[in-house]
Design a protein that fits this description.
Chain lengths: 312, 312
């Protein structure tokens, strides 16, 4: 328990033994990591309630918001995640997880949050394919290409799968938009021996995160806008390498300094270059991904396979 | 922001500006109480994540638990509330709310958590009615009676509504149990000029809170039992008086020192006295309720009508 939290608890006017009593209810047969996380969460929640003299009505408003988020969540939408996102929590745990895995000076590609719009089983496509369907003449066709390498050796990685997804020009992901074909603007590409990849997509646009639910209520209550700067999502996997969840951001996009979910990192800013000579693309976007082997990524709970990891 | 939390933030190895950046996104047109609560919550959540080096996988497990709780919640069940209950949060905000309202030495009846099984619109019954239906010969029939008075003047309160609910001998509330009649073991009784009330109920039993959802997962993970000591719930309302949400506990019940939701208070312990001469009851339970006027309850956010109160 952080000493700071305990001293807070001692200066308030409420039952000084209450939190200790709740923590003491924990039995002996508890996973140490589960105990650490749950006890710390209880301490913080209780300190939060006492420091702010949280009333029953205010607490119940929070419970209803959480329940509403859960009811809105399904295979196509994760409102609980979105609620965390507008509070900066997903970007923070992303930073923590990345930092724990990465101590090298010459770092692998930085990570960014998965976001609530990832879908499993995007179509497996041939290199050079186009992931844009049912959208005509937007003037924003982009040829994206690059190489996936091992960040330490520089060796191209064979069999790396680049799973990509982004929004349509109307700012909607396909699962939010009945007018788009299923799995539009999504695809999975597998590298050959040279580690190279290339495909056609769109230069994305800023868009508002959905604000018809609890996350929107929080944004409205905090007098905040719901916009994200233009970005493309990636999930990279490769044999023997640590997966990378990331996004790349259009450096010239509106909201680049003011992302509603706080995901922008300097190393993930990219430039869309005007592109001549290809009738299928107005822009070119070169981008190389650098992955770490599991051995180079710091061992431990990140690999999801240690005794220490929490599970419920 | 508590100084303690800020100093925690300064000693970690992560982006030292991140939380400030999230807080700075708040616009100028924000209710001060909403700002206070949200900013404090963000600070605590971020400190929690950093202090424990929370990983993306661990955070996502929490999100899924929250979403699952929301999906299980409806008019008959509030799993988000139950999740808070096993972490002690509802009992804590109940204590805070009660303390804010009560400074007097001779205090009104202590409060206890509402719990997730309250239902609106319980049947309005005549004094002396029995709320037990479809349950035969358990040997635990109880005649409960007493007076509702103003805690300061001692005057009986006319028009006080006593809304009562408790579990059946099988440990289930009627909405959990298809074999019980709708609204079984619930009733609302309105006092006359003498402030007196009386009705027949059962001497309740300890029971496990539902553990087929996220709250049960938490209990299992913490190696804790799900039992509550025997208790009867009340919601008291009366013209001009502050409502009282409370429970009274059978002093001799198992789990009286080890309530899964931490709701027991000494002043709410009662004795079921063996009762002779009434063919309808084996026990007698005398209990007087003491209510405070709104004027005597400390004014402020408790009345739910001040500008300070948070709303979304």
């Amino acid at each position: 328990m952080p000493a700071a939290a305990v001293s807070d608890s001692k200066t308030h006017k409420f039952n000084p033994n209450f939190t200790a009593q709740v923590l003491a209810a924990t039995g002996p047969n508890v996973n140490p990591r589960v105990k650490q996380l749950t006890h710390s969460l209880i301490q913080h929640l209780h300190d939060f309630a006492r420091e702010n003299e949280l009333t029953v009505d205010e607490w119940m408003m929070g419970v209803e918001l959480m329940n509403e988020a859960g009811r809105m969540s399904d295979a196509k939408r994760n409102e609980g995640q979105l609620l965390c996102d507008v509070l900066g929590l997903e970007s923070l745990v992303d930073e923590i997880t990345y930092k724990l895995a990465t101590d090298a000076a010459d770092e692998p590609t930085a990570t960014a949050i998965l976001g609530p719009f990832y879908r499993h089983d995007a179509p497996k496509l041939e290199m050079g394919s186009c992931i844009v369907h049912g959208i005509e003449g937007t003037g924003d066709r982009t040829w994206m290409h690059g190489t996936v390498t091992d960040f330490k050796t520089g060796t191209p990685i064979e069999g790396a799968v680049i799973d990509v997804w982004h929004t349509a020009p109307n700012g909607l992901y396909e699962q939010q938009d009945p007018d788009q074909p299923d799995m539009n603007l999504r695809g999975r590409f597998t590298t050959g021996k040279d580690g190279k990849y290339n495909f056609y997509c769109l230069r994305p646009v800023p868009y508002p995160i959905p604000f018809d639910g609890p996350a929107g209520k929080i944004l409205t209550a905090l007098d905040r806008h719901p916009y994200r700067p233009a970005h493309i999502h990636f999930l990279l996997t490769a044999p023997g390498h640590k997966p990378i969840v990331t996004q790349i951001f259009d450096r010239s996009s509106k909201y680049i300094d003011d992302d509603a979910v706080f995901a922008v990192k300097d190393s993930l800013l990219v430039d869309f270059n005007p592109f001549q000579g290809d009738p299928n693309a107005e822009f070119e976007l070169p981008y190389d991904f650098k992955m770490a082997t599991f051995a180079d990524a710091k061992e431990g709970k990140l690999n999801g396979s240690t005794e220490e990891s929490a599970s419920l």
